[in-house]
Design brief:
This protein is α/β, with parallel strands linked by helices and about 325 residues long. About 45% of the residues lie in helices and about 15% in strands. Helix 5 packs parallel to helix 7. The structure holds nicotinamide-adenine-dinucleotide. Belongs to the short-chain dehydrogenases/reductases (SDR) family.
Length: about 325
Amino acid sequence: SMQDNDWMGKLAEAQALSENAQGAELRFDGKVALVTGAGAGLGRAYALMFARSGAKVVVNDLGSAERDGKKVRAADLVVDEIKRAGGQAVANYDSVEDGDRLVATAIESFGRIDIVVNNAGILRDKAFANATPADWDLVYRVHLRGTYKVSKAAWPHFVRQKSGAIINTNSAVGMFGNFGQTNYSAAKAGIQGFTNTLAIEGAKYGIRANAIAPNAGTAMTATIMPAEVVEMLKPEYVAPLVGYLAHESTEHSGKLFQVGSCWVSEVRRQRSGGVAFPLTAPITPEAIAKRWADVVNFDDGRAHYVADTRQSSAELLANAMGGG
Ligand code: NAD
């Protein structure tokens, strides 16, 4: 349709622009990057990007793929692709649930680890009424526990060398929810909380942790997206943000970025101005009902962004001190 054509034109423009505006090359020579779930989809695009920029890459994936009609390890395909292009990579076939083995592969093969991209993922979509504990546990284990296990294994290396970058994978669904994805949205929201605290604890060691909410046409989304949309949402359009966030020149930490089809943004939390009820009289449900329109008002010029936990409690403490 007309609309689709406009879309593609804009995409071509954006690509041309991004190529023209490129500054100094962000290289990863001498660095080791571990990408989980890198046998396909987004992870594959990250692995190829890191290798192209000079990094040694651990390509983790427990999945299989097909080559010349034969079943092969998905990770091997990507490692071969990197090597054919002159890059350095090694495969790891363990589940992210065994995070220490993934990090051991990096240390044994390349002697260090600098970058962890927690990307591996699965879906077990079902309406909550039909969702089973097994689905819940599996999605939790791969996404949140896997992210934890790999990060936990890399952490002592990062602390010792006083540097390290972790990029975790959230989703729009982790922010807003989606029908049939209670398990997935809970795991993704958990990953964001985990990322926020890692960033705080890592700051004094020069360790940064960020999360991205990507959109890409992959095996995970191909079944629910039309083919033209899959084509517009190439994983290659997401990978450069991961490269930027992983690079030692980047200062951002504890942030969430939404990215897809060459569009990159930061997402942050907004809070209404709030209502300060006097502490002198007991606050009642009725009193709140009366002021409800003000509690949820984002248009009175008092709505604001909240950067951290301390800032988030400033107003309520001020009210307790008699400011309200
Ligand atoms: P994908 O299915 O193409 O790739 C995921 C890879 O992870 C697969 O190759 C799979 O074999 C591997 N994997 C699964 N379980 C694993 C485990 N236990 N250990 C190691 N590897 C494992 O999916 P994708 O679209 O590339 O998704 C990558 C990440 O991005 C996921 O975390 C996903 O939730 C997230 N995400 C994707 C989209 C999107 O639009 N594609 C949107 C939001 C979030």
